[in-house]
Design goal:
Elements: H1 14-40, H2 51-74, H3 79-99
Length: 100
């Protein structure tokens, strides 16, 4: 007979970990997009070539904020991990939204 999981156990910190990883994934995607742009258009120095890397960074930050909010509502283990992810993502996102 299998025992059922108890309802008072906390959930695994999947979204907390994703909220910390998201900004680094966004920066990694931005670097790859920038290198691809340099490879295909070597003499293009316009600001438009920064649009795709910038969107990748914004996407990573926004995704990190969303996953940290999901981590908080799921009441996962290691609750501080979700808060660290929220601060890591929300601080640069708010800075860019206000001062740009």
């Amino acid at each position: 007979m299998e025992s059922e999981p108890r309802s008072d156990e906390k959930r695994a910190p999947i979204f907390g970990i994703l909220s910390v990883v998201a900004p680094f994934a966004g920066v990694g995607l931005a670097l790859m997009a920038q290198e691809a742009d340099r490879h295909f258009y070597p003499n293009d120095d316009s600001l438009a070539s920064l649009a795709i890397p910038g969107l990748a960074i914004y996407g990573g930050l926004l995704g990190g904020v969303v996953t940290s909010i999901i981590a908080a509502t799921r009441q996962e283990k290691w609750r501080a991990l979700g808060w660290v992810g929220f601060l890591l993502n929300a601080a640069p996102l708010v800075y860019v939204m206000i001062f740009s």
